[in-house]
Amino acid sequence: MSYYDDVGNYYDKDARDFENRYWKNRALQRIRQAFREEVKRYPFKKGLEVGIGPGFDLIHFARIFKESQFFGIDIAQEMVNLTADKIPSLPHQNTKVAQGSVEDLKRLFPDEKYDMIYVFFGALNTVEDLPLAFKELEKLMAPGGRMVLTFVNKWYLAGMLIELLKLKPRWAFARLRKVWGGYSPTQFLASKCYSSRQIKAMAKQANLHCLKREGFSIAYPAWYYHGLHQKLPAAILQKLWKLDRNLSKGPLGEFGEYALYEFRKAD
Description:
Layout: H1 3-14, H2 18-22, H3 26-40, E1 46-50, H4 56-64, E2 69-74, H5 77-86, E3 95-99, H6 105-108, E4 114-119, H7 130-139, E5 141-152, H8 157-165, H9 169-172, H10 196-205, E6 208-216, H11 226-231, H12 234-247, E7 258-265
Parallel strand pairs: 1-2, 1-4, 2-3, 4-5
Antiparallel strand pairs: 5-7, 6-7
């Protein structure tokens, strides 16, 4: 069984109650909306999403940008099925989805070029060869296009501190290993976490210029710290979110739970 088979099987199982869990997690919803706003800053005619999940964002954008075309892939067939089930409800049939990896894009959607490519919640942390993935995506960019890519960050300092206070050093430093096992304590998902320096270096090799880097959950608790989100008053969480956004583009932005990057083709 190949690596992508393993990743696909993991998310096929996760798809069963993925949406139900998402709608109960306000932190995830808040972070997702911030990612979306970054994409909305740019007009585009063709958008590509890598790692569509159950179609939250692909369907969202397809409804808003009715004159644009959208394409999406996911490594998990069940996630593709969930998204495909939503497409008939769109007022304009402007969306296509397929099962596969970044390396399959030219075969799945031949001759397509995109002026917006976006990846939310770290789908590129589970590609076999990230430098190759960057190069493949760069080839698919239309002139003047943009990429908005998010990654699970390697150096999540607040998370390290929380896990050390919980006397769980193994979890505190899990992202620093060559292979990270994912978020679940019971299901292993072989993936890799990257630092800002690594991401920028790989993008540069692919002829991509980094326009911005922004951190998320620097001070605002990560989405998986359910206990903190339940215990802290809404007013405190709002203040932590505002602090998070103020810190996001500065030096401490390097150490959030997620990192968002914007790229364009280098001149």
